Amino acid sequence: MDFGALLKTLSISPPALLVNMVGFVLLFLLLRKIYFGPIARFLDEREQGIRQSLDAAARIHQEAEAERDRLREELDRIEQTARDRIQQATREAAQAREEIVASARQEAEAVVARGMDQLRREKEKALVEIKDHAADIAVEACEAILRRTLTDDRHRVLVDEFLRDLEQFRVAPPPL
């Protein structure tokens, strides 16, 4: 089949077809120049704006990630500082407790030592009083004996014996 016959069958005139084709091409060029160019520029600008927005969002996301990491490190550092301070306070409390216990122990030892010293002094005082009392009794007994029959020699022997007994009593006192 021939193209001309086909056009006749379809009732299309070739000059009208040619005019329509030329008109279509001119319309296409005109639309391209007037509408498609600005639309293409608008779409390019829109695409570029979206790209910039996506890039900005990615940059903000990266900055947020970096900030989150920095804050996490800061929080870890603060927690470590808190743990260190708690450990330091615990050590200081243990040291203070040890100092208090040592001080109380020293004070108790000092009280015991003072008590022992006082007890020793009281014992010595009691021994001196016992010796004085024994000496008084011995003197009275001696006076009574001497009044009866005592010579100077006998008197000296009795005094020496008494002093020896007192010395032994002082070195090893009898149990109370």
Total number of strands: 0
Strand content: under 5%
Describe the oligomeric state of these chains in a short phrase. Answer: single chain
Question: Low-confidence spans: pLDDT under 50, at least 5 residues?
Answer: none
In DSSP terms (H or I, runs of 4 or more residues), the helix count works out at 3
The radius of gyration computed from the alpha-carbon positions, rounded to a whole number of angstroms, is: 64 Å
String of helices and strands: HHH
Structural class by sheet pairing and helices? mainly alpha
**Integer count of domains:** 1
Shape: rod-shaped
> Could you give a short account of the major beta sheet?
none
Helical content class: over 70%
For the residues shown, what is the average pLDDT? 85
What is the CA-CA span between the terminal residues?
159 Å
